[in-house]
Amino acid sequence: MTPAMVGSGESNKPENQYQKGVKHLVENGLHSVPKKYILPPSDRPGTNSEDSNVAKQNLELPIIDYSELLGPRRQQVLQSLANACEGYGFFQLINHGISDDVISSMRDMSGKFFDLPFEEREKYMTTDMSAPVRCGTSFSQTKDSVLCWRDFLKLLCHPLPDFLPHWPASPLDFRKDVATYAEKTRHLFLMLMEAIQESLGIIEGKETEGKDNILRELEDGSQMMVINFYPPCPQPDLTLGMPPHSDYGFLTLLLQDQVEGLQVHFQDQWLTVQPINNAFVVNVGDHLEIYSNGKYKSVLHRVMANSKKNRTSVASLHSLPFNCTVRPSPKLIDQHNPKRYADTNFDTFLAYVTTREPKRKDFLDSRKLTSVSVEEKEIK
Ligand SMILES: O=C(O)CCC(=O)C(=O)O
Ligand SMILES: [Fe+2]
């Protein structure tokens, strides 16, 4: 929705009220979930523990100690990293070297931004997916047939000087603190990608040359930060904070707060990710699945709503520059391992998500090559 639509007569229609976001809705008083947010029973998080839609509590994500990657145990940690990426598509990263100060300033700014009056946040509301700053709600705001219980602020972050002047100037210090956090997470992402390439056998040790080394391209790559805000929901069993989806990009580095909500799809069940203070939840994105030719898989995850507390998370999504092509690494293609995905780029992704309601891993599935469709997809 454009800011101009808000405040006009049009904006009083319920559909338009919903476009203002769930925080706005909750602030205006609400005792039940409006119909537009109610999922069909088969998609609800549910309460029956026999149901595969209900999370099992006794499973935990692998934990990777980043500081050990830099020491004599690097080879063992690379093996754990490979196991985590292959088996779960997710891990928690501890001892990552980003200081508690940087993290707590980021949390502080996220909270303060969503504490701003609606009129202040409204300035950044747009449905233009390529806007450097975008405030919105739900998952795919204009396409979702059922809305979900989340508001967000998306910020393009790299190259920073191109985007920083567009970022919100309020709250005070927002630009400074969020820029510091963006730079630190970017550096961490690059270090993780180096380790991941090594774990895939694409580079060895500190080798940086070679035509298949995408590290240099990633250094100029895209970074998008998403601050997610989930206000309390009066009937959390009927809706979701975010529907099952996989992330665009190579890796997502997610900072969650102490309020549970994130669930990962694992062996046909949902497992709740236990918050670890100041750790990053890292997950494989669609582009890494393509680049690894399917060895590492992007994994479905969703967010539960809850009736008691606000929940805030910060996701940092990283990929190649928007004008680059993502393709399986030639080093992972041979006679026994044919190329499994068509080349893709940001325009292909945008065209896909702007023309339909994004569901689960549909975009990635559309890039999969089968013997029948290889030629057809290669030319798209
Ligand atoms: O809020 C969360 O824990 C997850 C957010 C997420 O999946 C995303 O931003 O893509
Ligand atoms: Fe996600």
Outline of the structure:
The protein is of the alpha+beta class. The protein contains 13 helices and 13 strands.
Explain what you see.
It is a single chain. The protein has 380 residues and is α+β, with helices and mostly antiparallel strands. The chain has one domain (41-202, 211-379): B-lactam Antibiotic, Isopenicillin N Synthase, Chain (Jelly Rolls, Sandwich), CATH 2.60.120. It is 30% helix and 17% strand. It has 13 helices and 13 strands. The strands form 2 sheets. The protein has an 8-stranded mixed β-sheet with strand order 2-3-11-8-13-6-5-4. The chain has a 5-stranded mixed β-sheet with strand order 1-10-9-12-7, with no helix packed on it. α4 packs across α8 (174-199) and α5 (100-115) crosses α8. Mean pLDDT is 88; it is low at 1-8 and 372-380. Fe (ii) ion binds next to loops.
Indicate the topology:
Elements: H1 14-19, H2 22-27, E1 55-56, E2 63-65, H3 66-69, H4 74-87, E3 90-94, H5 100-115, H6 118-122, E4 133-137, E5 151-156, H7 160-163, H8 174-199, H9 215-219, E6 222-230, E7 242-245, E8 251-256, E9 262-266, E10 269-272, E11 280-284, H10 286-291, E12 301-303, E13 311-319, H11 346-355, H12 362-367, H13 374-378
Parallel strand pairs: 1-10, 2-3
Antiparallel strand pairs: 3-11, 4-5, 5-6, 6-13, 7-12, 8-11, 8-13, 9-10, 9-12
The structure holds 2-oxoglutaric acid and fe (ii) ion.
2-oxoglutaric acid binds at residues 226, 228, 242, 247, 254, 256, 261-262, 301, 303, 313, 315.
* CATH superfamily label: B-lactam Antibiotic, Isopenicillin N Synthase, Chain
Straight-line distance between termini: 31 Å
Taking pLDDT < 50 over at least 5 consecutive residues as the criterion, the unreliable ranges are 1-8, 372-380
CATH class: Mainly Beta
Residue-averaged pLDDT, rounded? 88
Small-molecule components bound: 2-oxoglutaric acid, fe (ii) ion
Question: Any idea what the CATH architecture is?
Answer: Sandwich
- Order of helix and strand elements from N to C terminus: HHEEHHEHHEEHHHEEEEEEHEEHHH
What Rg is obtained from the alpha carbons, in whole angstroms? 20 Å
The main pleated sheet reads as:
8 strands, mixed
In the CATH scheme, what's the topology name? Jelly Rolls
| Morphology | globular
Biased composition (Polar residues): 9-19
GO molecular function: L-ascorbic acid binding; metal ion binding; oxidoreductase activity
Function: Involved in the regulation of shoot development and salicylic acid (SA) homeostasis.
Main location: cytoplasm
